[in-house]
Amino acid sequence: xxxxxxxxxxxxxxxxxxxxxxxxxxxxxxxxxxxxxxxxxxxxxxxxxxxxxxxxxxxxxxxxxxxxxxxxxxxxxxxxxxxxxxxxxxxxxxxxxxxxxxxxxxxxxxxxxxxxxxxxxxxxxxxxxxxxxxxxxxxxxxxxxxxxxxxxxxxxxxxxxxxxxxxxxxxxxxxxxxxxxxxxxxxxxxxxxxxxxxxxxxxxxxxxxxxxxxxxxxxxxxxxxxxxxxxxxxxxxxxxxxxxxxxxxxxxxxxxxxxxxxxxxxxxxxxxxxxxxxxxxxxxxxxxxxxxxxxxxxxxxxxxxxxxxxxxxxxxxxxxxxxxxxxxxxxxxxxxxxxxxxxxxxxxxxxxxxxxxxxxx
Length: 361
Description:
By secondary structure, this protein is of the alpha/beta class. It contains eleven helices and eleven strands.
């Protein structure tokens, strides 16, 4: 599972360095030293207190962090940086790195639920192959017009009937081909959301709700191999301390519940969770009690088959235009994820990046 922290998560306030320069640069937004969650055997960093729920994963060696992750000279534009991260560094954007995985491993029969994205947009799974992208799971449904004369089941049956016979017009035929997959996706997501009233859907959906949906989707055993969960709100230019605390607490709660659900399903060893975000934040705080777009950042890998610990380091004495350096290519994280899936990793990424001994063999 890939968890996208959209907006540019502040890695410095997530995995907090003990370097005094951090507090000098952030007199207001720095996480109080007394509040940090200590990491056994690690004296360089501490976890934000809102992530305390992940500390047991560290203690059992199931939580790894990559420090200084980012592409060289990457843009500070949300849109460009997100495309670069999703493409795996290759622009112009045509297919995402997960989309290339979909295409490289596709079978003869389309499997639209093999990869599912929740709470985000379709570009994260951009590919020639089918996938399912759901911006709001609770609102993902076929809507029949209101009124006593409408029979929703009959309307859906009529919609399904339009998929055959197949038109000779290529464009119309392509549209017809996705109708059965769409109906299947609607049915599966309705079961995965647990009957949530779509009129009560919240946008953006909190991490706990999306990750609960992901766990239920996997429990349905419909062939899902990859789930991408998009979490909004990490663009913390102002009033960061409380906003960031809320976001991280929701993230930790959602991840903890998801991993517990996987264990209950007997799938704990089958799951790898990685986090991504389009860029980090600048080292110095701004005048609005927040932080602005930066560069090098923190990414996590979580799961029983992860080899825990910290890879890389942040040198706050060696900044580039006020940013920490990007020392670890994000494709190293992707390579581990693709290896986990048994994919042709080098073909998909166009190279053989360092794996940083992140996974147990």
